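Re-run with default settings, no changes from the original entry. Doing this only to confirm the output is reproducible before filing.
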Amino acid sequence: MSVVEFRIDRRSGVATYLQIVQQVQQALRLGILVEGDRLPTAAQVAATTKVNPNTTLKAYRELEREGLVEPRPGLGTFVSRTLARPDSAADALLREELRSWMQRAQAEGLDREDVQALLNSVLQERYPDA
């Protein structure tokens, strides 16, 4: 069973529940979470992130609406489908190139926010309708 640890950025301007939704979606895309995995309980998320349990429940309801998770009364919330693509050599190569780029950016003195801004800028250029 995979475990996802949520990281909440209170300065991001993105609603907390949406950050949880996005992090679950990312974990599903990367294969960190797979079908059948159990998500942390709202109480567990609250304990690690200081987020109100209702915020987590709102995120889980959104994920359920998207067909990604299903609640099982008395058992928890479980992943019902993945967003991961089958592993490909291209993915591995791109990941390694991105790691190398990140190392160069860090060596040049860019901090996390600088890198995020660059990534967001290029993403918007390449995927303007997303």
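Residues 89-126 form one domain. The chain has a mean pLDDT of 89.
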